[in-house]
Amino acid sequence: MQLLVAFSLISLIIQLVSASVSTSVVGGTPVPAGSFPYYVHLFNPTCGGSLIHPDIVLTAAHCTSFVGRTVSIGAKRLDGNGAESKLVIGTLVHPAFNATGNEENDIRLLRLQNPSSAALVELNTNSLIPALDSKVDVMGFGKTSETGVLSFTLQQVQVTVQDYEVCQTMPNMNILGDRNTQICAGELVGGKDSCDGDSGGPLLVAGTNLQVGIVSVGIGCARVNTSAIYTKVSAYDEFIQNGICELSSFPPARCGPSAAPSWQPSLAPSITSMPSGTPSISSEPTVSASPTISDDDEERCLFRCLCR
């Protein structure tokens, strides 16, 4: 009898531990120590990002500019404890970002005051990656269910790249824009997904550090026959590389000697669009934090069903 009771108690403990582990962003698991050192946690509102250059962070345009705010690099806890803290002093949002429609061109760069020593994520430039039906990893501190709360620990979940045309037939998926600039990923049976608060975080080829997407928008979280939309990184390689040259205090050699920014670091640059559509930063600084949606709009966007 005592042996039976002991076995029952052990079984109950295992069930409880398994249940606690399976409740995450939605349907994911806690990120192991040492994984994703390039993940950047953005505070108030909660968003994610990735370190793509020592002083440049890649995130979603619909997340606020974060100029004047501190971000945490390599964060594994929602409070940022144990992570590397850096101040954001500049931002560059895509000039064609559609803030009032389907959020196309949902991509933004942030400039840090000082360079980080963390490892950088690898950016995908191949338009054929990720392949249809391949697995991708997404992570963040977002809600653990559609009506739940933010996760205190960084979570990761693996989902499947879906056919873009199939995604267009899903209920309420009128948020889709262009298959060349967006990725549709999720599980048709539901149960696994990014959610509110994961916006801006990286989408990686499963089991690698190759970033293929940025968490953008979705209808609810982890619903059946509904997938999330991610900004396709390879479609914005020119925007990203030019942005690094213009924003960084330590631009790569390929940028040339005139790449160092001439604007004051406490101000965000204004943006113009060249004939090709490639954004550039004007040499004259402006006092506006960012030519995009307000912080109030972002707070509304973060916690509604459409935005992540």
UniProtKB/TrEMBL annotation:
Location in the cell: Secreted
One BP annotation, GO: proteolysis
Polar residues composition bias: residue spans: 270-293
The species this protein was found in: Fistulifera solaris
Pfam families reported for this sequence: Trypsin (PF00089)
Peptidase S1 domain span: 25-245
UniProt protein name: Peptidase S1 domain-containing protein
SUPFAM superfamilies from the UniProt entry: Trypsin-like serine proteases
Organism ancestry: Eukaryota, Sar, Stramenopiles, Ochrophyta, Bacillariophyta
CDD domains membership: Tryp_SPc
